[in-house]
Amino acid sequence: MSADLPEISWFSALCDDDYEFLGVPDPALQSSWEHCRDIVLAADRNGFDNVLLPSGYALGIDSVAFAGGIAPQVEQMHLLLALRMGEMWLPQLARQVATLDQMCGGRLTINIISSDLPGQTLESEPRYQRTVEYMQVLRQLLDGERVDFHGDFVDLELDPPRITTVSGKCPPMYFGGFSPAAKETAAIASDVFLTWPDTVASVGETVEDMRARAAKHGRTLRYGLRTHMIVRETEAEARAAAERLLSKLDDETGEAIRNKSLDTASAGVSRQNELRDSATDDGYAEPNLWTGIGRARSGAGAALVGDPDQIVAKINAYREVGIDAFILSGYTHLAECDLVAEHVLPRIQHAPLKPRL
Q1: Least packed by Cβ within 10 Å: which of 15, 131, 180, 354?
Q2: Residues β-bridged to residue 81
Q3: Residue pair 331/295 in contact by the 8 Å Cβ criterion
Q4: Which of the following CATH numbers is that of domain 7-229+323-347: 3.20.20.30, 3.40.50.1000, 3.40.50.10610, 1.20.210.10?
Q5: φ and ψ of 171, to 5 deg
Q6: What's residue 280's pLDDT?
Q7: Which residues contact 282 (CB under 8 A, 6 or more apart)?
Q8: How many Cβ atoms sit within 10 Å of the Cβ of residue 251?
Q9: Is the pLDDT of residue 143 over 90?
Q10: Spatial separation of the C-alpha atoms in residues 47 and 209, rounded to whole Å
Q11: Which residue has the higher pLDDT, 251 or 193?
Q12: Contact partners, residue 148, CB within 8 Å, separation at least 6
């Protein structure tokens, strides 16, 4: 296990991804400023280190606008802001990021998204090439460097904006993807590589693969796991909560929900589908790793399910294979945030991220 303390983060459902029963929309849980604000402030109050603010187009509310509204209200936690590369003109994006970082006192981190732009389709390799170029130039601008870059997607000669982040440096870039092009993008340009829930052995293989890829570029990365949580006082109660979550879902509705996302054909989603297909009849791919979430969700499609001791042991098993950042969520996001804070956080010594001064 890494000697470094892990980063434990929560998730704010900006993309219409909150349910009491999967597949059954509830107007009270639909993404809105008020509902997502309440999730973020609960995570801050509960002592999480960071919170992911995801980005969608057809789903939910805008991540950048939301970050601007919530930043002054967050007292100690970092914000992990999702940004889709190519969606905004780079010089303006750099100014936005620097401004948001100042608004939250240097506690901004960035989740890089490489999916298609709304209304456009681009093959995987050129799409990731665009992402690499945007990441490289965004980092240069936020590091206060003059840009003289002439690539396939970015052609720019420009001084950096006057406004800077609190530290004068680019916030850490988190990035996930499972195709060879995505992994190379992460190896070249990211700071934290994110993977989705999988067996401990498979996650370990991914970490080793990415370590080798990053080393070829003279770089080292941190590694994170994005997963759902269902923790209760007993394993029986946790498994019953998982079954209840799916109790009103039919296959047609689940498929329709999965197909709304822009990343439904990605290599990562394919792996989540494989994991679900390989699971036992009750949905477990290995002890305490339940794949039922993926029946009605594109992207991260499994949950850690169990009592507090089992959940902490599972997290520690992932730490043993190299994971030191965890982005957690659960249904409903407010209720599960409180449960994880009660049953899990006190059992895991974790390291609040420090503002970059």
Answers
A1: 354
A2: 53, 110
A3: no
A4: 3.20.20.30
A5: -60, 155
A6: 66
A7: none
A8: 10
A9: yes
A10: 32
A11: 193
A12: 156, 157
Spatial contact of 121 and 176, defined as CB atoms under 8 Å apart: no
Residue 131 and residue 151 in contact, taking contact as beta carbons nearer than 8 Å: no
DSSP 29: G
- Preceding amide of 332 cis, omega within 30: yes
- pLDDT at position 3 is 46
What is the predicted pLDDT for the residue at 262?
A: 46
Amino acid at 170: C
Strand partners, 79: 51, 108
More confident residue, 222 or 116: 222
| Eight-class DSSP state of 162 | S
Alpha carbon distance 112, 197 (integer Å)? 19
Tokens of 269: 């989603």
Closest CA to 22 of 225, 235, 258: 258
Q: DSSP 3-state assignment of 296?
A: helix
Token pair of 3, please? 């000697």
SS3 78: strand
**Alpha-carbon span 289 to 267, nearest angstrom:** 20
Torsions phi, psi for 289 (to 5 deg): -115, 105
Give residue-wise pLDDT tens across range 326-346. Answer: 999 999 999 999 999 999 999
Look up tokens 């440096």; give the residue.
169
Map tokens 């098993």 to a residue: 317
Question: Rounded to whole angstroms, how far apart are CA atoms 36 and 60?
Answer: 10
pTM of the model: 0.92
Query: What torsion do the CA atoms of 225, 305, 276, 123 make, to the nearest 10 degrees?
Result: -30
Q: How far apart are CA 173 and CA 97, in angstroms?
A: 12
pLDDT of residue 152: 96
Longest CA pairwise span in the chain (Å): 60
Element (H, E) at 133: helix 124-142
Does the pLDDT value for residue 220 go beyond 60?
yes
Helix axes 200-216, 180-189, angle to 10 degrees: 60
